[in-house]
Write a structure and sequence with these properties.
two-stranded antiparallel sheet, mainly alpha, globular
């Protein structure tokens, strides 16, 4: 009679790493964003960008070894739609070199890396691993940012070095805010959508811990996008399940406002400035609206194809009014004072409209809208899952399996679509946007309830959570 050998912790860890091996390169991209970008890479490719290229290569190797069709027709259409506008705009660029550079960047962020992430994520456990990776990166960057505020070593804001920017530095003040917001949205989704008490508690604590660094980023666009995304998650999760989380967030907000001392006045001024778009806007708001008007004017001259990829900087002065400043002042966080040129309108929709025209905007925004609709359909499908399919560990039926994944995807797409009103691609943190679209794409374009393709490396218990392409 044979006796089974006891399972050791090392065996458990080895099995978990083996099962998660395909998605580990994506986790590495997220982890590398915790490192300070190299000074020599400012404005260019970073180590995380290089790793994202390796993710695409790993995906290609995985597809060759698996010998299966890479994407369904629906997924190929949604992910490939932006290529139309990007290619037309690159062909019409005044500077061929800049057009090729822009083509490469847009394909990386909106097509290649998202498709690779979508194909490397095999089931909901992989998606949860990526969600927790977002949370971990956000906690690290947030901790660095809070320390910068407390010690006065952050980026310059109103003459004081108190703006939390994490490891991204003053040249990418939106970097930490974006990372922390992604982590907060994922933490809220995991807290609202999981049926496991321990994971729900940990996720709630993480969400609360990410509120201070988000506030100290002084990023109005990130605040608005996060409020809208988390509000949407609360509504989608059901108010009964969200009351405790909402009360905890309100309490944390009161502690935050009441306990920051000097920072309270700064935060109040920053919040108040959101509504001061006509009465007494600050220079950053004036610059933003001036560049928005310039991008719109470019589109009027070239309505279908725009001025070409990377064409906004060269055409800006010919379309902007005299209200536009010479650049934004950056200093602090280890950098000397310098003027940062305003090379984009800080609105993704208007940037695409000005450079790619109506063709590019309809293609790119159409792809994002399709992802939003499909992600919401996935949430509805999960809600309608029969109770007998929930599994023995979800016998209560209060939280259908996959709700957390659905809320992660829906929250991230809502956040991104709102944030693009106030920001565009650029900076070291941009590669994280590509990973986010991959996560959204997996949930939106894969059917978690469909029969799974057999996976000999996954335990049998995971089969109901495997995904097959629609």
């Amino acid at each position: 009679m044979s006796h089974a050998l006891p399972v050791t912790p090392l065996d458990t860890v080895t099995a978990a790493l083996r099962r998660a091996l395909p998605v580990l390169p994506v986790v590495a991209v997220i982890a590398l964003l915790g490192l300070p970008p190299s000074p020599s890479a400012e404005g260019g490719a970073t180590i995380a960008d290089a790793m994202s290229g390796l993710v695409v290569l790993c995906c290609a190797i995985h597809l060759v070894r698996a010998r299966r069709r890479p994407l369904s027709a629906t997924a190929a259409l949604v992910l490939g739609l932006p290529v139309v506008g990007i290619a037309v705009s690159a062909a019409g660029a005044a500077d061929p070199g800049a057009g090729i550079t822009g083509l490469t960047r847009y394909l990386q962020i909106f097509v290649l890396v998202p498709a690779a992430v979508l194909l490397l994520v095999r089931d909901r456990r992989d998606l949860r691993l990526l969600a927790w990776s977002f949370v971990a990166l956000a906690l690290w960057q947030g901790a660095v940012g809070v320390r910068q505020y407390v010690t006065g070593t952050g980026a310059s804001y109103q003459g004081e070095s108190v703006r939390a920017v994490g490891t991204f530095g003053p040249a990418d003040v939106m970097g930490m805010a974006t990372v922390v917001a992604f982590g907060l949205v994922c933490a809220v989704a995991l807290a609202l959508g999981t049926g496991e008490a321990r994971q729900r508690s940990v996720a709630t604590l993480c969400a609360l811990a990410l509120l201070p660094p988000l506030a100290l980023s002084f990023s109005r666009g990130a605040w608005i996008a996060t409020a809208v995304a988390c509000g949407a998650q609360l509504v989608l999760a059901g108010m009964r399940r969200a009351v405790k989380v909402g009360a905890a967030v309100a309490a944390a907000g009161m502690i935050l406002v009441g306990g920051l001392g000097v920072g309270t006045a700064m935060l109040q001024d920053r919040v108040a400035s959101i509504t001061q778009v006509t009465d007494a806007p600050d220079q950053s708001v004036t610059d933003r609206y001036t560049m928005w008007a310039a991008a719109t004017d470019m589109w009027r001259e070239h309505p279908l194809t725009g001025v070409g990829l990377k064409g906004f900087p060269d055409n800006r002065d010919g379309h902007a009014s005299l209200a536009l400043s010479s650049g934004s002042d950056i200093a602090g966080a280890g950098a000397a004072f310098q003027k940062q040129p305003l090379l984009s309108p800080h609105n993704m929709y208007l940037l695409v409209l000005g450079e790619q025209g109506l063709i590019g905007l309809l293609a790119l925004a159409g792809s994002w809208l399709a992802l939003l609709v499909c992600a919401l359909r996935g949430l509805v499908r999960v809600r309608r899952t029969p109770q007998d399919a929930a599994g023995p560990n979800l016998a209560t039926g209060r939280t259908p399996p996959g709700t957390d994944c659905a809320l992660v995807a829906c929250g991230l797409i809502v956040w991104q679509l709102v944030d693009f009103v106030y920001a565009d691609i650029g900076g070291p943190s941009t590669v994280l946007t590509a990973v986010v679209f991959g996560v959204i794409g997996w949930w939106a374009l894969m059917d978690p309830s469909a029969p799974a393709v057999a996976d000999t490396t996954a335990p049998a218990a995971s089969v109901p959570e495997e995904a097959a392409a629609r």
